Amino acid sequence: MEFSSKLLENAVYEISQLPGIGKRTALRLALHLLKQPEEQTSHLTSALGKLRSQIKFCSNCHNISDVALCEICANSKRDAAIICVVEDIRDVMAIENTGQFRGLYHVLGGKISPMECVGPQDLTIVSLVEKVKKGGVSELIFALSSTMEGDTTNFYIFKQLEGVTVKTSTIARGIAVGDELEYADEITLGRSILNRIPFENSMKA
Amino acid sequence: MEFSSKLLENAVYEISQLPGIGKRTALRLALHLLKQPEEQTSHLTSALGKLRSQIKFCSNCHNISDVALCEICANSKRDAAIICVVEDIRDVMAIENTGQFRGLYHVLGGKISPMECVGPQDLTIVSLVEKVKKGGVSELIFALSSTMEGDTTNFYIFKQLEGVTVKTSTIARGIAVGDELEYADEITLGRSILNRIPFENSMKA
User: Fold this and answer.
1) For all residues of chain A together, what is the average pLDDT?
2) Where is each Toprim domain found (chains A, B) (predicted)?
3) Which residue from A minimizes the CA distance to B25?
4) pLDDT by residue (tens digit) across B149-179?
5) Which of A100, B89, B147, B199 falls between 20 and 30 A from B70, CA-CA?
6) CB-based contact A83:A168 (threshold 8 Å)
């Protein structure tokens, strides 16, 4: 792409650094901003700048938060003995939306992935292990993606906790509610038979 | 979506104002920026801010340009008597890439679209008509999208030029090079038969 303007070229380059956005989309977005009132661009840039420079993480669960202790951790009605281990804030939001969990979270900030150069030291695993060793935690629920990396991360944390008395569980894997059996993949279907649950339990929630 | 942070919520809201970007994608982009070094965000925001506040348009063709007269208009080797009328800078870039046009451009900044509240006064039509009336222009090539709005805009400019001696043409519509006839739509195929060209001409370029 040859640009008639360095300003435009530079803006397109920076926008196309975002994941999933190519040069053509970046150009479309830049031209869109040029057609909109100048305030839209200044609102966007100031929101991004503030986000990046002022963002804080909850000192207990490492979730993104504007205050030192996030709303969930500060809520005395929630059960601090049950901790749900998740990758990032999106998982917290997804689980909160279900209204089925009243414990606290621990946000790892990702999962162990040698392919993407993410090791245990890049995640908040040490702080999780310390928290559990300190006592007061009765159960850890692993709620990571059901992938090789998610399983590796679960197992790594599990090994770190050897000798510590804490119940560990993972969220159930199985056929999604509303799904037809014939389209389910073999591994999921196989595991859902092995890990079958009492019929009475399936009526809950 | 319920956010644990106002900063994050605000950033997601502003990103999702961009066309084709929903709340989920906006959240993914915001979290991506948080994981990258702080410089990436500052480079992005400064590039966008500069683009919006310092952008200039060529005084002759209205294309985006860092200088008062764009490179194309300032190039004495180009034929100022032939003007290609386009919607925006992307069309200029696309036609320049073909290497088949040695005249100048006139960038309208859009096309007449009552649905999107774009009237003739929002485009650079007056300046185009003045330029042609001043003389020195032998041909106008309309290179707008082949849509209702594009055709309306072409026709509006054509009417404004009544009584002015200038040749007007539109870029050829027809079967794209490499396309199979059976998949072409009827209107395109029908027009390509009506507007057939001498076989010798098809061997050029």
Assistant:
1) 91
2) 81-176
3) A20
4) 999 999 999 999 998 999 999 988 888 888 8
5) B147
6) no
> Where would I find the beta strands (DSSP E) of B42-108?
56-57, 64-65, 79-86, 103-107
What tens digit of pLDDT does each residue of A69-110 get? 999 999 999 999 999 999 999 999 999 988 889 999 999 999
Cα–Cα distances (Å) from B52 to B87, B110, B173, in that order, read 19, 18, 35
For residues B14 and B21, what is the distance between their CA atoms, to the nearest angstrom?
10
Beta-carbon separation of A48 and B45 below 8 A: yes
Cβ neighbours for A65, distance < 8 A, ≥ 6 positions apart: A56, A57, A58, A71, B4, B5
- CB–CB of A18 and B32 under 8 A? yes
**Structural domains in chain B plus CATH codes:** 6-54 (1.10.8.420), 64-171 (3.40.1360.10)
Q: Which of these, B93, B127, B94, lies nearest to B108 by C-alpha position?
A: B127
Report the chain A residue with the minimal C-alpha distance to residue B73: A4
Phi, psi (5° rounding) for residue B106? -135, 115
* Helix (DSSP H) and strand (DSSP E) numbers for chain B: 9, 6
Q: Which residues of B touch A33 (CB under 8 A)?
A: 18, 48, 51-52
What is A126-152 written as a DSSP string?
HHHHHHHHTS---EEEE---SSHHHHH
Question: Token digits for A76?
Answer: 């005395």
Distance (Å, whole) CA B23 – CA B34: 16
Residue A116: strand, helix, or coil: helix
* Residue whose structure tokens are 């319920």: B2
Give the pLDDT confidence score for residue B187 in this predicted structure.
Answer: 85
Q: Quote the tokens at residue A35.
A: 């057609």
